[in-house]
Write a structure and sequence with these properties.
Distance between the termini: 35 Å
Order of helices and strands: HHHHHHHHH
Shape: elongated
Largest sheet: none
Strand content: under 5%
Number of strands: 0
Helix content: over 70%
Number of domains: 1
């Protein structure tokens, strides 16, 4: 068994590489496309949230925080529609593979009950918090939730989250950038914990 410090070295190297990549490409014409792409696939099947890219890009070019937050929001909502389509028409093939990959099959019925109680609040909560959004969007299609409800709740939740992150970086960018570089190990661990908590929150969503 690897020592605990070596276990954390693996995600640390990954995050440092990702951070270095995004900082390097933040000022290139390809950066917005990368941000849109990650935001899109995270809403339907990718495990890493787009906040990682958004943070690095806003830190690198803080004057473009509105543009980056907007791109992230549009990409995420578009990905939510793709997740909806997977749940609506491709659940028995692609949908089941995605859900089983994250071991979240038992949560689908639970999400269905939450939709029956308040679909808008369920979608908004997942859109704004670390709860894995892909399961919510796929379930929305599976349980035939109104597309209008999905879009409106997604826009409010995702925009609220991404504009809050980008806005905070715009205002406190210098201090946050120095903190990220100084306490990168800690931020990597916190990110992993938040990601894990998001999956646990979905499993025990009541």
């Amino acid at each position: 068994m690897l020592p605990i410090q070596n276990i954390f070295q693996i995600p640390k190297r990954f995050f440092m590489s990702l951070y270095a990549w995004t900082m390097h490409w933040a000022k290139t014409p390809q950066a917005p496309f990368a941000l849109f792409g990650i935001a899109f696939i995270e809403s339907s099947f990718f495990p890493i949230p787009p906040d990682v890219l958004l943070i690095a890009m806003v830190v690198a070019t803080r004057k473009k925080w509105l543009r980056n937050a907007t791109i992230c929001t549009i990409g995420s909502v578009a990905g939510a529609l793709f997740g909806y389509f997977i749940g609506w028409g491709l659940y028995k093939t692609i949908g089941k593979v995605i859900v089983n990959t994250y071991h979240l099959q038992p949560t689908m019925d639970l999400v269905g009950r939450k939709y029956a109680e308040n679909a808008f609040l369920t979608i908004f909560t997942a859109a704004f918090t670390p709860i894995p959004y892909k399961v919510i969007t796929i379930a929305a299609g599976l349980f035939h939730i109104s597309i209008l409800t999905l879009v409106v709740a997604s826009i409010i939740g995702r925009a609220g989250r991404f504009f809050l992150v980008a806005g905070a970086l715009r205002i406190f960018g210098d201090k946050i950038e120095k903190s990220i570089e100084k306490y990168f190990d800690l931020f990597s661990i916190i990110f992993i914990v938040l990601l894990a908590c998001g999956f646990l929150a979905l499993k025990y969503f009541k």
